[in-house]
Specification:
binds zinc ion; 38% helix; alpha+beta; PH-domain like
Length: 357
């Protein structure tokens, strides 16, 4: 097994403010948090690492998913949204570094107790250094990290610098390069003035419509126009700096507009450049599903898993497709395989309100 050094030294102190579900701070003052080898302390509340399912991050906003006992032998996954000041990335990387190794060790010990110790296979994520448990999966050119949502090609380190920026977009749910997008509207009425701003994570394709809306909304009072122009430039210039994935945003936009014939040649051109890309095959499967071509969508999703055997988005899509087509046995086999991939819930990120027995 390959090991990478810890991202931070422990204990790791940080300051934070708790957020509500809308992302608004619920406390005026900053609170103290601490990450140690055994627990995450938020103010005076200690959360054992064994109860933490995951931590996801969007800039300085993080969400910790924590298992809580219901008292009737069932557990519920509860979200703790926080804004961490200055250290959100470090806290997340360190926490996931520990969680991933703890889970991998438990799985390895379980396999050893069954006399299957040599079945354990772990790979360190090239993007975030979490330990990815690949014991239940075939060896493929790429590997998916559930801790940072990236797909990395294991051979060819020169590709990593751009692969770390690609993941599913929060808005269109397609494989792309989402980034922070700030929407600002200024207004003033004689002596009364103000502004409204919000943040989201979205791909350049999804930025375009929002940036035009922002420009139109700011034309009356003008102050927000430079910001709107800046966002328009970001949205439209992205393809020129997208390297081997250039054209991806135009292809994704065509899919969203229902123009499959326009999107397919773009995807094919990119695939010729990059050779393997589970994310691109996922987009192909997604677009074919939108067009109602289920058989072809299944083939594309299977190609995605041939590039990256543990790519969860393609697994979820394939399970959905199999179910839609009445191929329940195949859907169940895929679910079982993902469920045994690690000792964690396979779809932890979506299971915020899920109760398990
Ligand atoms: Zn990772
Ligand atoms: Zn998008």
């Amino acid at each position: 097994m390959e090991f990478a050094s810890q991202p931070a030294s422990l204990p790791l102190p940080f300051s934070y403010r708790p957020l509500d579900n809308e992302g608004t701070p619920t406390s005026f003052f900053r609170k103290s948090g601490m990450l140690t080898e055994a627990c995450l302390t938020l103010d005076r509340t200690e959360i054992a690492l064994t109860d933490i399912q995951s931590m996801s991050r969007r800039d300085d906003h993080v969400q910790v998913l924590v298992w809580t006992e219901d008292g009737d032998d069932s557990r519920t996954l509860l979200p703790f949204p926080l804004k961490i000041y200055g250290r959100a990335d470090l806290v997340k990387r360190q926490l996931n570094w520990m969680l991933s190794r703890r889970r991998a060790d438990r799985h390895r010990e379980l396999l050893e107790s069954q006399g299957l110790g040599d079945h354990f296979r772990g790979v360190v994520c090239p993007s975030c250094q979490a330990m990815i448990d690949l014991s239940s999966f075939e060896s493929t050119p790429q590997v998916y990290c559930e801790y940072c949502d990236t797909v990395s090609t294991l051979q060819g380190a020169e590709r990593l610098h751009y692969e770390a920026n690609y993941r599913l977009c929060d808005c269109c749910e397609m494989f792309s390069s989402p980034r922070k997008f700030t929407t600002v509207y200024f207004y003033y009425l004689i002596i009364f003035y103000g502004w409204h701003s919000s943040h989201s994570h979205r791909c350049p394709g999804c930025m375009r419509g929002e940036a035009w809306k922002m420009l139109a909304g700011n034309l009356v009072f003008m102050l927000g126009v430079p910001m709107a122009c800046y966002q328009l430039i970001r949205a439209y210039s992205s393809d020129r700096i997208a390297g081997p994935f250039r054209g991806l945003h135009a292809g994704n936009l065509a899919v969203r507009r229902g123009q499959l014939r326009k999107a397919l040649p773009i995807y094919e051109q990119i695939l010729e450049r990059v050779n393997v890309s589970a994310g691109l095959h996922y987009n192909l499967a997604y677009s074919l599903l939108q067009a109602g071509q289920l058989e072809q969508a299944v083939q594309a999703a299977e190609l995605s898993l041939a590039d990256c055997s543990n790519y969860t988005p393609s697994c979820s899509l394939l399970v959905y497709l199999y179910t839609q087509m009445g191929r329940d046995d195949q859907a169940e086999a895929l679910r079982r395989r993902w469920g045994s991939a690690s000792l964690t819930e396979p779809y932890g990120r979506q299971a915020v309100d899920e109760t398990i027995n």
